[in-house]
Amino acid sequence: MLAVWIVIGIIAILIIAFIAIYNSLVRLRNQVKNAWAQIDVQLKRRHDLIPNLMETVKGYMKHERETLEAVTKARTLAQQVASASPGERGKVEGELSSALNRLLAVAERYPDLKASQNFLALQEELASTENKISFSRQFYNDSVLNYNNKTQMFPSNVIAGMAGFKAGEFFEVTVAAEKEAPKVSFT
Amino acid sequence: MWEQVRSNQTRSAILVVWMGVLLLLLGYFLGLYFFDSSIGGLIFALILWVIMSLVAYFQGDSILLAMSGARKISRDDHPRLYNIVEEMKIASGLEAMPSIYIVDDPAMNAFATGRDPKKASVTVTSGLLQKLNRDELQGVVGHEMAHIKNRDVLLMAMCSVLLGTIVLLAWYASRFMLFGGMGRTRRSSSSGGGAGQIIIIVVAIALMILAPIMAQLIYFAVSRKREYLADASSALYTRYPDGLASALEKLAASTNQLKSANQATAPMYTVNPFRKRGRAAENLTSTHPPISERIRILRSMSGASFADYATAYQEVRHTNKVVIPAAAVAAAGTMALRAPEAEAPEKVDEVQRTRETSNLMWNLNKYNTITCACGTNLRLPPNFKLPEVRCPHCGRINPV
User: Fold this and answer.
1) Class of domain A2-163 as given by CATH
2) Chain B CB within 8 Å of residue A31 CB
3) Residue B269 three-state SS
4) Using CB atoms, which residue from B1, B2, B79 is nearest to A124?
5) Among A150, B243, B328, B334, which residue has the least CB neighbours within 10 Å?
6) pLDDT by residue (tens digit) across B255-265?
7) Contacts A128 to B, Cβ<8 Å
8) In chain B, what are the domain boundaries?
9) pTM more than 0.80
């Protein structure tokens, strides 16, 4: 009789452990999704700001067509991969970041533009969006790390394998900054 | 990293429990003294505590905001401040965006309210908006956000209610003892006192004097602990401790005292609104750690994580005391510092910030702004009813 109870007890404990681990995996995965949604919002916001910026800047920067086009192109590319994986998006968004940085660096040479209220407001928005992207990236990568640890460590990895929890992907924005300084041409 | 800082929470909770014990002791002996019934005193103290706690819990935020004369602002009123708060909201992992309030006061300070992190608010003074650059403002907002995130707001509110109850009880009891002693003497003859009676009287009087002082010291201890933790969290969120450090330097150097603060609301602020200049030593009786020490700790951080703050704390104070519990340090991992904000927002210099802030205050007070063709801004008060106004600068007539 005692043996039966022990077996029942062990089975009950196993079931409870299974439920607990499964739920914690779901919770972590949802956190990753949620964190990703936050990054997505900020990336979209940045895409939306760029046409405005172009409109403002165009009138002042007549001789910087290449710089402007680079930003527009990077933006179009970034919008095309808007539903791709975090790793892929990170690369494209990194290019957009560097194109924007170059544009803002060039803008330094136009005092009229720098004094424009509109431009100042846009600059603040862009800088803040950039900050928000990097803060939410941190939160996201942290969530991914937590989740991945859980899916790879024993005993939760067994359940993760059975229930099909896949490892999350980190989001890294590689800004190819200062690689190519803006060329000044006096022609 | 964004886990609640549990063990620090527990230690603060223990201190609060001690305050509760103090209150009950006070009630117990005052009950014995006045009604010859300890239970009566206990129940009286408890009821008073519960009522005050309920008021503080449900109305505390609005009372505090109303008392400080804070005005709610929206995104369009001050985009930079809004952005900074949103950045810190994201960095701290808070679920909901706190509302933002402005106090029209040249003193530099900030505070946070919100028993529930989902319905929190951050308040800054207009002086702060004028004097601090973006990085510094971010540091201060990060500090306030940490108070919300670490649930300090609720803890400190409950703490100050306990303190208030103890002070109130002791104050009224002492008045009754001094001026209404008759009831007491009449009853003592019937109960046929003796040595026991005298002990009760002595203990009651001692408690009446000591309980408020002890409660105050506990309160200060809790408050200081939370300040260090909020500084560490701000550094972690912004990844730029120098921002908060230089903000604190500016705050320390300013001589304006906040008009709307009082003893009860003091711990809510970033720096103690009652600090006196040149008196940093009153460590035991201050709601905030000495500001110079906070600055030095922040300045000597080599990274932005809790571990870096804990190390810097031990270096600066030459102690082995642990300011942040090991569990939190381990959970926070490592975090590199970031570079100061790029030159772009720094271009918003103090003149411009002052203009921005005064514009904001004009708008909040519902003044109508008309820009004359000569470039002069005319500010019309809300009760201005005439159809047109003459520019004092160039004499042009502007329609309202």
Assistant:
1) mainly alpha
2) no
3) strand
4) B79
5) B334
6) 666 666 655 55
7) 80, 83-84, 86-87
8) 6-274+282-332, 349-399
9) no
